[in-house]
Design brief:
By secondary structure, the protein is mainly beta. The protein has one domain. The chain contains 2 helices and 23 strands. Keywords: Signal. This is Polymer-forming cytoskeletal protein.
């Protein structure tokens, strides 16, 4: 009986370890990948499933494709003409290069979102304590949301978040501000486009 219990314990411990790899990984043939204290790289022209890492970065190379991309304590970089279903970080930045397509949302807590030229984001852009920068020719189909910081963060001295939008970018959704934001818009937007949910 003791031997059986030991075998069951070993099996239960080994299941999460098999699913989550320690160290760096390179993905190219459609597999899911999960890492702890390691980076994940999707090769150029490669395909990947759902990707996640803690204490590491994820890079999707040129012309590659991935499904959901989730990072805790790390950054996401999506290179030229790559595609992803969604991008999310906690304590990290998201950098999207030229002509990238994201089918869903792009969100970060405690990080910046930087989008280069001629990208298409079909979902929502969302941050709490970071800046959002949108270069020329990019289309944002969903809303842009600056969430309210938590109580502890709100008590700290910090720079006002910025929304920087070039003049040929297209914002199809609305801008929801749950905190004060420095709006640096190359072209003025109509009053109904910007919704302030906080008291000035």
């Amino acid at each position: 009986m003791k031997t059986l219990n030991n075998l069951l314990l070993i099996t239960l411990i080994s299941i999460p370890l098999a699913a989550c790899t320690v160290g760096n990984q390179v993905i190219s043939k459609g597999a899911d990948a999960s890492a702890f204290a390691g980076n994940i790289n999707v090769s150029a022209n490669g395909r990947a499933g759902n990707l996640s890492t803690t204490n590491g970065n994820i890079v999707i190379e040129q012309l590659a494709q991935a499904k959901s991309v989730d990072v805790t304590n790390g950054n996401i970089t999506v290179k030229e003409m790559a595609k992803a279903s969604s991008l999310q970080t906690i304590n990290g930045n998201i950098h999207i290069e030229n002509k990238v397509t994201v089918a869903g949302d792009v969100s970060t807590t405690n990080g910046n979102i930087e989008i280069a030229e001629h990208a298409i984001i079909h979902g929502v852009l969302k941050t709490t304590t970071g800046d959002i920068s949108i270069a020329s020719g990019t289309i944002i189909k969903g809303d842009i949301i600056f969430e309210a910081p938590g109580f502890l963060t709100s008590q700290l001295e910090r720079e006002t978040p910025k929304l920087i939008v070039d003049n040929t970018s297209v914002l199809e959704g609305k801008i929801h501000l749950f905190q004060s934001v420095d709006l640096q818009l190359a072209q003025p937007l109509s009053a109904e486009k910007i919704i302030r949910h906080y008291q000035k």
